[in-house]
Amino acid sequence: MYSLTSSMTVSDRPSVVSSSKEMNGDAANFSVVGKKPKVVFVLGGPGSGKGTQCAKIVENYGFVHLSAGDLLRAEINSGSENGTMIQNMIKEGKIVPAEVTVGLLQKAMSESKVQKFLIDGFPRNEENRVIFERVTKIDPEFILFFHCTEQEMEKRLLSRNQGRVDDNIDTIRKRFKVFVDSSLPVIEYYEIRGKVRKVDAARPIDEVFDSIKPLFMPFVQDDLLTLSENLLHAIDNGDYTTYKRLCDTEVTSFVPEAQGHLVQGLDFQRFYFDLVLETKKLAVACPSVQSIISSPTVSVLSDDVGLVTYTRLQQKLGSPSEGMVVAYNETRLWKRVKSTEGEWEWKNVHLHQSKTPSS
Ligand SMILES: Nc1ncnc2c1ncn2[C@@H]1O[C@H](COP(=O)(O)OP(=O)(O)O)[C@@H](O)[C@H]1O
Ligand SMILES: Nc1ccn([C@H]2C[C@H](O)[C@@H](COP(=O)(O)OP(=O)(O)O)O2)c(=O)n1
Fold first, then answer.
1. Residue 50 Cβ < 6 Å to ligand 1
2. 50, 122 in Cβ contact below 8 A?
3. Ligand 1: which residue has its CA nearest to atom 12?
4. Architecture of domain 2-16+224-355
């Protein structure tokens, strides 16, 4: 079990007054729209399994995979003016000038709504690292380093069968040398700064993935906190569409209004959203509400279940109880399910809310 304690501000239960924080209705279930980009660099020799593991991380943790090699190959295929130069360098196993690669990465990052990136095969040398840092000012969360013997990598590359111009024995040997001479010093640079997470990549695919899962738990915790925050924003804004998207259709809840009864499904909550819309239509003045979440904890209980608990300090303005603060303890249980489109999504499956004894 992994735990995290931090504190953040969120809005509160159904209210006719819009929250000051904007909800992004298009936000994917996993996404952290509007947040500072988070970057994990994925390094390792050619054939160490970077791309293979990245695909699993993307599926499970909602990262955007940016493979520097794939972006360069796409640039060749697009017929760009740099295409021939890139093609020749890749054929020779050489590293393409950093301005080109960083430009492609930067473009891809700026076009992405989700701001959690796995940057694979980068930075491959000091020049890559320095220019990326200078241009983006991003400090990576950590460097995932796949360690594997050359013998094993060679065997994998020779049977990769993706029709790549560089997967032949001569170029493979050159790439190994470039990796040792140019990429290992970058890994050492980050090692000194405590950023390298070394993985034994010579094991079977699923074993490698199991060993890297714990490294991604802080991102899951962050996502669950963000989703709880998004849910409260939706409630605050009377945004039933987002609320419904984030909740399981069979969500259960213990809330004070239900007088100790377990409520199942969305109808009970829907009533409050309808009330908000109705009140808006009638333009009735209504109290504005703001809550502070204090001392949240997020526990990831398994790959598919997470628990978020916090105390909500609710401030009310414009009502008879103006200025009054009410404190609630809330526990939200989140479950990860596959959508009909085959994508993983977190759904709120249970809420337990009670007033704190002093409220
Ligand atoms: N742990 C592993 N064990 C055996 N084969 C693997 C493993 N990981 C990846 N492969 C295979 O090795 C080849 C190279 O993997 P890939 O992910 O493309 O490496 P990289 O992106 O580091 O160059 C692919 O054909 C892939 O299916
Ligand atoms: N940062 C990078 C990444 C890749 N390249 C070029 C040079 C590399 O040999 C090729 C292929 O890289 P890719 O990461 O796709 O594949 P391997 O890890 O070598 O299997 O692309 C580069 O010039 N700069």
1. yes
2. no
3. 156
4. Roll (3.10)
